[in-house]
Amino acid sequence: MQASDHPISDVQPLKRRSSRARVEKAEKLRDVRYEIRGKVLQKARRLEQEGHRVLKLNIGNTAPFGFEAPESVLRAVIHELPRSQGYEDAKGIFTARNAVVHECQRIGIPNVDVDDVYLGNGVSELIVMATQALLNPGDEVLVPAPDYPLWTASVLLAGGVPVHYRCDEEADWCPDLQDIKAKTTSRTKAIVVINPNNPTGAVYEYSLLSSLASWARQQNLVVFADEIYSKVLYDDAKYVPMASIDDDVLTLTFDGLSKAYHVPGFRVGWMVVSGALVRARNFIDGLDTLASMRLCPNVPVQHAIPAALGGYQAIFDETCPGGILYEQRNAAYESLSSIPGISCFKPKGSIFLFPRIDTNKYKIYDDEKFVYDLLMDKKILVVQGTGFNYPTPDHFRIVFLSKRAELFSASESIGAFLATYSQK
């Protein structure tokens, strides 16, 4: 047979696709945003590459501000590193999950077993896992406004619809229960409660949490309780675990080591499923499937959990009067509140402030542009309030991890910037 007679020779080559054809992102990402690491941060990085020093007050990254993990936590990871080279249980190693169980017993979350605990590569991974396991296209989730934007993004990514309920600034940023009830529909599957709150610093009292749990029980809603700042409290604020209130409500509690133990880069978080487990067997099976698909969470850093939870809680020294976080909170609050046209709720928890700008005074209509212009002029990076799905462009979030003197200086610079700023 000659080469020209071979059947393959009759196959016509595929035409080369046009070099101008574009590769588009998936449609499901159309409305997904995460402005904490958005376009303004990209500009800040370019400024740094050009030799500018940028004061990054946009994210709760403790390490660059001199906060270090307890030595016992680091030693635990180092000691177990040689024995952390293989896959482990899909939910995480037993000793770490058991330490979380003991923590649940300490804070009053009842009837938690080791199998109810899922470890993750940060709380963010577990939030995505939980929303993917629960939501069908079109299902609604009640999300606070303002929110931690990963919640809105994760609901959208799972095909759900985030419905933002109002948190009332005039009521110390507490959720508006009447607004929640008005926005609950037959498609509502869950409600997100962030306490202590990011970005506002609010800490909710038992009576409010009890009302939220009662509504969740009446409407058969799953409660997603984001409590990553549970140990970062000031003054007389008290943390009440959402899962401790009503064991007839299916509650997923999210917490981790990033904030209280200053290891955000370790990416160590956990999710505890508690309450109405009998009615949630099918959903839990979905969580197990998703946990198995990732094989297991990062093994070496899981050994930090027993050492952290069972060791000395230095965070309480940092948040009491005279402690570094306590004093930096006061410095940031006092200096920002002294700026004409700026008002601010004094945080009872977390590491953030969420100041309000008098937009009539400063003629601000686009808070992203305000944040961008502040960066360009003063080399200070904060995050616009609409990046937290707040409906009006009159807030920004600032982290107070920097030293007191630097916080006073930053506030002075923000005040000087605003004094000459007016959007056209």
Would you mind describing this structure in some detail?
- This protein has 424 residues and is of the alpha/beta class.
- It has helices at residues 39-49, 71-80, 94-107, 123-134, 149-157, 177-183, 206-219, 281-293, 299-302, 304-310, 315-319, 324-337, 359-362, 367-378, 404-419, and strands spanning 55-56, 117-121, 140-145, 161-168, 174-175, 188-194, 222-226, 251-256, 268-274, 342-343, 352-353, 356-357, 380-381, 383-384, 396-399.
- The strands form 4 sheets. The protein has an 8-stranded mixed beta sheet, sandwiched between helices. Strands 11-15-14 form a 3-stranded antiparallel beta sheet.
Query: How much beta, percentage-wise?
Result: 5-15%
Question: What can be said about the biggest beta sheet?
Answer: 8 strands, mixed
The low-confidence runs, each spanning 5 or more residues with pLDDT under 50, are none
Shape: globular
